[in-house]
Amino acid sequence: MTQPVTYVEINSPDLAATNAFMEVAFGWRAQPFAAADYLVAPHGDGAGVDTGLLASRDGQPRTVPVIRVDDLPKTLEVVRANGGTVVVEPFTLPGLGHGCYITDPAGVLLGLHAYDADA
Prior knowledge:
Structural class: alpha+beta
Oligomer: single chain
Radius of gyration: 15 Å
Strand content: 35-45%
Number of strands: 8
Distance between the termini: 26 Å
């Protein structure tokens, strides 16, 4: 796999309930990151990826895989050329890089992230 999933976001209609469940069921210790209502459960030294827990903006539960890409503008050209749609335009994550959200031709929601410590 050349561009792996490096992060997962869990969108919950009840963030407090989801966070409590993940803590009890799986031992997650999610902490606020960038905002009080955006929590991150780090994977630590074991296998896996960090996971963001956040309130669903539209009230629908969903899990969004985030794929690391080297060049976000170039990747978006390929996405569009192959029937994908940008649903959230690129944004900056200070100190982390740039991200956006797309859907594939079947409507599957994916996040994209290009790391850039100088962002």
